[in-house]
Amino acid sequence: MLSKRNADAILVLCIGAIICGTAIFLLFPVIVTVFMAFDGREFMGPFPPPSLSIKWFERLFSNSYLWSGFQTSLLLAIATTALATTIGTSAAVAISKMSPRARDVTTTMFLSPLVMPGVIVGFALLMFFSVLDVVPSFFRLIAGHLIIALPYTIRMTLNGLNGISETLGEAALSLGANARQAFFTVTLPLARSSIWAGSIFAFAFSMDDVAISIFLCDYNTYTLPVALISLMRSHLDLTIAAAAVALMGLTFALLVVLDRVIGLERAIGQGVYKA
């Protein structure tokens, strides 16, 4: 029979193997995409590529169709982030003041888009706006992206607000500040990191959305992910891999900024100001 020490060693090896296998399974598609984006061939061939080149990135940045989609996605993500941050922060402040039961019900209602398939949300918005038939495509896209971005700004802001002790606001009130001054000088600065975190997540998910955008775009206003799907159907080449790597780089840069400026654990965690 195995001794306890040997059994523990085997268990550790099995857990390590599972972790390594899972990491490889998750990272392998990303690695393949990165290598194919630098493929020097003129066609999609077997992996790994025999030579490397940056020509697919040159074609990406010279493609007016994709560049127009990127500009729309960037403007859309900025507008969505600004609206989602403003509305989400206001909603989170109101929710934090509710009773526990009302808070749970209201939070669940606002977070429900996270469990709703994007295809259903996009189709429902398409039917809704088809009745109005006067709303420009860009504003339809803002409405759709706002639905998927709001849950992140509300959830992250709530995490920050839940971590702020009520005694801090009471101390400001006891020193002569009114409720508005206490909020803007004490509560809001302490929740700032969570608000920024929600904003960055809202921006990233808006840039990456396909399921809702594909229902709300038209021939003149379309996002980069929708343009990539259209390009895959009409002319499949490795420009798509280059665009995917560019989007991954943008998302990674946002996470680095979040980690350097705020700190991921501090931004995502809660209870940091309870003590």
TrEMBL record:
Gene3D superfamilies: MetI-like. The keyword Magnesium does not apply. It is found in: Cell inner membrane; Cell membrane. Residues 70-258 form the ABC transmembrane type-1 domain. Its main location: membrane. InterPro entries: MetI-like, MetI-like_sf. It comes from the Bacteria. Pfam families: BPD_transp_1. The chain crosses the membrane at residues 12-38, 74-96, 108-131, 137-154, 236-258. Keywords: Cell inner membrane, Cell membrane, Membrane, Transmembrane, Transmembrane helix, Transport. It is a multi-pass membrane protein. Belongs to the binding-protein-dependent transport system permease family. This is ABC transporter permease. The lineage of its organism: Bacteria, Pseudomonadati, Pseudomonadota, Alphaproteobacteria, Hyphomicrobiales.
